[in-house]
Each structure stands twice: as structure tokens, then as C-alpha cells.
Amino acid sequence: MDLSAAQRGRYRIAFSRPAALPGVTVGKFRSDGHLFTCVTDRYATALHLSGRSEWSLRGARWSSGPGTIDVKVPGEVFSEHARHGQRRFQVVLFDTRVVDEARATLDCTLSAPKENALHSRDPRVAPLAKLHRLLLRNDASPAELEGASCDALLALCEFATARRDPSRPRSAWAGAVTRARELLDARFTETIALDDLASYARLDKFRLCRAFRDEVGLPPHAYVTHRRIGLAGALLARGVPQAEVAARVGLYDQSQLHRHFKRIAGVTPGEYVRAVR
């Protein structure tokens, strides 16, 4: 739902709060007007889509262009000094409550990062970039968004502070991953909230997402999607209509089945049905 949209001269600004991400606000900006100066009031990350911007933060100068990720913490003064071309970027703002939950769980204290304007391929900010791209798509499932948001918060905490080593080695998390996987295997056609999965696995959701990906090769939501598409293929081969298949495997509708099936199997459901006949 769009919360706010403004058109001022050569500015276009729109804000929304995705229903699947409580405590997260998404802003989309387009401007070739006057230069920005602002004070950030929340933890934020920006993905630049077009144009180049020269700006300063804490006395340091930075340059952002297509594909770069910026990270800002509350209370910082952002000043733009020059712009080249129309600037388009997306901002994801995390409410303080959401970041405080992650910070307390991970036992870390956040501070202003020493680096900024990193390319989205940089492993330190890649989870932030993934969340941005899912939000730009406008068709990501709630499970995809929840998992990506969890990874993004973990990346934000790691990027903005030097965390103390966890009290347990990662190898000790294998049991939690096993418990989580057993639950997902038993109920992958259902919607299981990440908080509920973490509670069942007896590991906080931030470490669970990372440990699950390390052990299994996919984050939990992606693992569920692959299991659903595997079942969908078996049902389609038996002649079950696509709309019914989508409902039976836990997807919203036929269009979501089509998108995930094509991405994972490499063919559309219809092409698959014709191939197995």
C-alpha cells in the first residue's frame, strides 16, 4: 500500500510499507533537481539505479552510481555535492525496533560504517542488494521477502560493527538446521513463519538463515520453493490442472507457479506437461 507520494518540480518520491515486512519502509526516488541534504532518522540502505552522485558523510567523500549500495545509520548528515544525469535510487529504511531486535539477538553494538558506496556484488552488502532487487520486482512472495530481510539485517549488523564471536561454534548449529529441515520437509506446502521455524529449531532466525544456507545450499524460503516445484512436477505429470497444482503445493496462484517453475525447471508448466506426455 502506498503511504506517501510527492511530485515537486523534477522530483518523484514514493513510500510504501510492504505488508510482509513489518517495520520496513521502502522509498523510491527520482530526481534531477536541486541537490539533497538530509539527516537520517533510521537505519537505511540505498541501491542506486541510474545517474551518479558525489556526496559526503562524516567528512568523507563518496561516489555512488548504478549498482552501488550505501548504508546509513541514524543521526548522520548526508550532503550531496554533485550529480551527473537523472538520479534514481531505492531506499530501504528499517525501524529502530527491528534493528534493535537483530542487534540484541546478535549481541553487537552498531556504529557508523567506515566504508560506503560499495558495489552490490561485494559480499558484505550482497544480502542488502538482494532485498532491494526483490522489492523492485513487486512479485516476490512473503517468504522470499522475510528471508531476504533477515539476511539483510544480519549483513547490516555485520557491516556496521565488529561483532563478538558467537558463544557457540557454527558446527554446533547443525542440529538446529536438521530440526528446521525436518519441519520444512514435513510441512513445505504450508506457510511457516521464520520466527516459528527458528523457535522450532532452537536457534535465532538470523543465525538459522545463515547456517541453513551453509549446510543445505539454499536459504529456508528457497528450499521450500524447490520442494514445492518438485511436487508440482509430479502432480502435473499426473494430469492435475495447473490452478489446482498451485493450490496443492502452497503457492498463491497459477501465475506464481508459472514464474517459479520456469525459474527452477527451465521450462513453463505447460511445456513440462507436453514433454512428459
Automatic annotation (TrEMBL):
Q: Where are the transmembrane segments?
A: none
MF terms from GO for this chain are: DNA-binding transcription factor activity; sequence-specific DNA binding
Pfam families, alphabetized: HTH_18 (PF12833)
- Domain HTH araC/xylS-type per the UniProt entry, residue ranges: 178-275
User: What are the entry keywords?
Assistant: DNA-binding, Transcription, Transcription regulation
Recorded hits in SMART domains, A to Z, give: HTH_ARAC
- InterPro entries xref list: AraC_XylS_family_regulators, Homeodomain-like_sf, HTH_AraC
Keyword match Nucleotide-binding: no
The protein depicted here goes by the name: Transcriptional regulator, AraC family
Species name for this entry? Labilithrix luteola
